[in-house]
Every structure is written in C-alpha cells, then in structure tokens.
Write a structure and sequence with these properties.
155 residues, alpha+beta, 5-stranded antiparallel sheet, 2 helices
C-alpha cells in the first residue's frame, strides 16, 4: 500500500511539474513577438546606454533555420545582456520587440541551445503549442535566391 501511495505522489509531482513547464512556455509564447531557431553567426559588444553603468549589451546576429512565431526573415538581430552564446551553435530564441532610445529592437526574453543530441524540451513544447493553435505554422526563413516575388505582381 505504501508503495502504491508513493507511486501516486511521485507521478502527480512529475505531472504537475510538466504542466507547470508547459504553461510557462505557453505564457512566453503568447508574450513573444518573434520566436525562432537560428545559428549564431555574429556577436558584437555594444556600448552601454549610460556611461556610468557596467551593464553589458550584445548584438547577436542569427541565420534563421525555423520561425515558430513572427514574420519571415533570412537573418535576425537581437539585443541581450547575456554573453554566454557561442558562435556557430543553434539556439531557440523568444524575443520581444521594444522601443528604446528612438529605436525599435528585438530583445531576448528566453533562449536555449538546440542540438541533435540534446533533450530539446523547450523546442518540443513550442511544437506542441503550435500544433494546438489553428492558424499557427512553422515557417521556413527567406531564401536569399527568392527575395524578389515571382509573377507579375498585378494581383
């Protein structure tokens, strides 16, 4: 009997943690303007907005591999204070568009490395969210060879 009770408690704890993670990702999905996976190709350190501040700012440029939410782009630049990104690695990025100092920029709200041999829990959760939404789709990034629309453009 104790074993059964212990098993039930263990299962309910695991299930509630899984649900909590899924609801957190759902909230982040709703609050993000752009969600994408991309390979980091450039990393620049930017000057601080305030001369007295030690806050580090980085501009990261990604070659996109998939777009889970937002409009299609070929490359994406985001600003972050996180310096732990490594060149030529693929990341899942949740970003929000904000206006700061007369510029509209995308800032990172969440990121996680994506790889073939990783668990990739976050990207799988995002795929589940997209599958449940009627008009949500995973988009491919723009192809540099097909930037000009095909056809006469008279529609």
């Amino acid at each position: 009997m104790r074993y059964l009770l212990f098993s039930i408690i263990l299962f309910s704890s695991y299930y509630s943690n899984a649900q909590l993670a899924d609801t957190t990702f759902l909230r982040m999905f709703k609050n993000s303007d752009m969600i994408f996976t991309g390979v980091l190709k450039s990393k620049y350190q930017l000057p601080s907005y305030n001369e007295c501040s030690d806050e580090k700012r980085f501009l990261l440029e990604f070659d996109l591999t998939e777009i889970q939410k937002g409009s299609r782009h070929m490359k994406m630049q985001i600003e972050t204070s996180d310096s732990l990104f490594s060149m030529n690695k693929e990341y899942l990025i949740f970003s929000k568009k904000i206006k700061t100092h007369d510029n509209k920029i995308f800032v990172k709200t969440y990121s996680e490395e994506v790889c073939l041999n990783c668990e990739n829990h976050s990207i799988k959760t995002v795929y589940k969210i997209i599958d449940k939404r009627p008009f949500a789709t995973i988009k491919l990034p723009l192809d540099p060879n097909n930037l000009i629309p095909q056809g006469c453009g008279c529609h």
